[in-house]
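Q: Is it fine to ask for two folds in a single conversation?
A: Yes, each is treated on its own. Send the first.
Q: Here.
A: Result:
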Amino acid sequence: MFRVPELLNYCAKVFGVSARVVVQPSVIYRDVSGEFVLLNLQSGVYYGLDAIGSRMWQLLTEQRDVDEVCAILIDEYETSSDVLRADVDRLVSELAEKGLVSIHRSTEPV
């Protein structure tokens, strides 16, 4: 079984596509003063995002693949692409491990 960052890299290398994040049906989320709050209604898991995490979340929930999200964010924030990609991968990993999102190849129907 792959851990999430390895799965993201595996999708890119083996399938030639990026991964896409899909919010689980049991998850609701709201923007509260510029920061998103996520709640899994089945498990009761609550997750709060800071402003940068909220921007990542906003882009990820627009059905963009992870590569597109990183390309947009690199233009918005002053950081290296490696650091940014690691941050996005870490967020996606944490969200997936908490059961808030699932990960699909960007060409895979959801």
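Q: Second one now.
A: Result:
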Amino acid sequence: MAQGPSAKFVEQAAALLADDPAKAEEQARAILKTAPNDPRALLILGSARRRQRDPEAAYRLLAPLAKAYPRAANTHYELGATLVALGRATEAIAALRQAVSLNPDHAEAWRTLGEQLFDEGEISAAEAAFARLLCTSIQNPALKGAAIALSQDRPVDAETQLRAYLIAHPNDVEALRLMGDTLIRLGRYADAETLLAHCLELDSGQDGARFFYADALFHQQKGTEALSQAERLLRQKPDDPAYLNLMAGCLGLVGEDSRVGDIYAKLANGYPKQPRIWLNYGHALRTVGKSHEAVTAYRRCIALAPGLGEAYWSLANLKLAAFTREEEATMLAQVARSDLSADDRLHLHYALGKALEDRGEYAASFDRYREAARMRRVTTPYDASDMTQLVRRSKAVFTPAVIADREGAGFSSKAPIFIVGLPRSGSTLIEQILASHSKVEGTRELPDIGFIAGNLGWLTRDTQEYPGRVVSLDAANLNSLGRSFLEKTRAHRKLDRPFFVDKMPNNFQHIGLIQLILPHAKFVDARRHPLGACFSAFKQHFAQGQAFSYDLADSGRYYRDYVDLMAHFDAVLPGRIHRVIYEDLVEDTDLIVRRLLDYCGLPFEESCLKFYENARAVRTVSSEQVRRPVFRDGVNQWRHYEPWLGPLKEALGPALENWR
């Protein structure tokens, strides 16, 4: 737009828009008295009316202005923002796209475009707009290359560039924020946490860095810490959908499931065209037992995004009803698409496997499960020898003498009951039974023992680290670790009952550690027929962990190592571990429940046999099964697939013949 004699006054009026739009309007009108058609003053006036929540008046000014000046990026941006306020989404998106095509560095136009596309459920386009926003919002030219690499989903390249820059500029908060984002994309959450904490120490007002910091904490299941960061963000922007989504995830980690549902109900109402909100809302509804409402949410998600494979798999995982022929046809059409993402494709294979299983087409079903597992294995590498070596080291370290020498060490609490074993072996059912007792609270699969083991070298490649470092700890350190476990897990205990359940199945790997830091804890080994347990895990897509389960031979070896380690602890800790065989529990529930309660030192309560009446939230894939009385249908489902389980049988070896 051409400069005129009133340019100084125009600049002054424009500078007032952000903080005092009423004053900006006043000055724009003063300019228009002497220059009635000045396009700059008209643009300021239109923007001022929009900012003062009068989009109709703004539109009457901006629409003809945009038509008269088709190459004015700011005018098209203001028109687009006004159309957003008027609820005219299609026109708004067109105007905003025109703005960014005229000025690709217009950060606010990219932001508004991304938000509007998100509202309309156009996921890919919204993500592309936010990626461009990342590039345009970077002020330092030296960081542009890294920002572009991130926007193009090249985090390795971004890390290389940022690492070189940060060597010379270690306290550059913009670079630190970018590096935090990069490390999260690379899955290096602990590194991201450390770096972003430093960034926030330098500038606590960096909301972008705080969001990534909370995300890094969330991915490490540090729920309490992440929650405090999310709450701080929401104090600034209480309706921000990204912050609300993060808040819901954090609340889920600390067991505030009803609040999770409330947040997603609010988001679904505010963003009804956003499929992933409906997906997450379905998850929240399923957790609190509202299964039929969850089905509705998942189907709403599918209607909005027919290619979103996780929605179909979530529907299949409810195990409430078989897919219709029409739904199967839609899944087949989607999985045939060449442009479908790998994640959507593997979820669809899992869902189709379940659909075919429900119809008794077991060969075709197995093919789908096998293809899904193959795809998952590509992104989830696993070395079976790591577990075998851990078992060997544990047997060598945790001898009867070592246990006896540390008698009296550790924290003396009797509160924890650990349910261990393989996933899909009845652990959720056992937890539900125990949590139906008046003295026991069910929590979730708590990560805290894994954190303790990780700090002692569990996940390092140095075979001398874990569990060797456990027995090098003195009595004070063992006591401190036990006490810390009780303190860290307190956030999950809402009912103030004397006992609580931690049903992380993988904790069987850490029984030696738990014994030394919590010598009075209870251990319940949930065991199932190896073919039943391993195949049930094989056809399940786990959100995280259980990398062994995506290959039948690896599953068999894992099961074999598990029973080997449990046999060792049966010998060195006689009477300390109570075994519940899933098949026995199904066959004679009353007897097995009474024995379980007796082991835990609990009086029998009838409510434990009516566990299905317990309305507590259940976060695992067995959530619907434990809300029904015990049924026998699932005990021998693996037999339908026995012709294809040869690699599993071979890997199991003697563990199959003598599995109890």
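Q: Anything structural to flag on that second result?
A: Two points. The mean pLDDT is 93. Strands lie at 416-421, 440-442, 499-502, 522-527, 577-581.
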